[in-house]
Amino acid sequence: MHTDPGNWHRIHTNDIPTIIKIVFWGLDKRLAQRKHFPSVNWSVSYSKYTKVLESHYETTEPGFVELRTKTKEILQKEEDLAEIVQLVGKSALGESDKITLEVARMLKDDFLQQNGMSEYDRFCPFYKTSAMLKNFVAFHDASSKAVATGDITFAKIRDSASDLMFKLSQMKFESPTQGKDSIKAKMDALYNEIQERFRQMVE
């Protein structure tokens, strides 16, 4: 939460606990050790502004709230699978769980991780955030539907769609200086490519 330091003297001391509780960023030592910045643990951090802003989100970028919910579900499931992976390894997981782990990794490395010193990642316009999530979720959902047929494995997806996975990892490098129309056109093109590739894969 950004607050003008000069205004703190105007805030009644009884209000301070309430203000502090509105937004909480839980710093994570493990993320810092991995050079993952910002080192904020998404699972313990929260904001009470979430619901308040939903109407704005839907007006500005329709579908964003659902994408955010889906993203949180993927990350939460990955945490739930962590103990199983430690005990028996990734190879023992079902195909859909392998997809969850891979997409969660991409979300952490290629979406949540930020390089604030770079031009492309110094800030992220809302339209870029929404478009990136749309493509990550599209890849997750298309992959999940593909393995549900029983004829396609995650290994096959990884081999057949490695170029798409690379393109997903490169979305963050699109600089906001290009302008909204240019970035959205590129993101939409990737979304359509994901849909078409998986349509061909399951035929």
From TrEMBL:
It catalyses: ATP + H2O + 4 H(+)(in) = ADP + phosphate + 5 H(+)(out). Pfam families: ATP-synt_VA_C. InterPro entries: ATP-synt_VA_C, ATPase_a/bsu_AS, ATPase_F1/V1_b/a_C, P-loop_NTPase, V-ATPase_asu. The keyword Magnesium does not apply. GO terms for cellular component: fungal-type vacuole membrane. Residues 55-151 form the ATP synthase A/B type C-terminal domain. GO terms for molecular function: ATP binding; proton-transporting ATPase activity, rotational mechanism. Belongs to the ATPase alpha/beta chains family. PANTHER family: H(+)-TRANSPORTING TWO-SECTOR ATPASE, V-TYPE PROTON ATPASE CATALYTIC SUBUNIT A. This is H(+)-transporting two-sector ATPase. The lineage of its organism: Eukaryota, Fungi, Dikarya, Basidiomycota, Agaricomycotina.
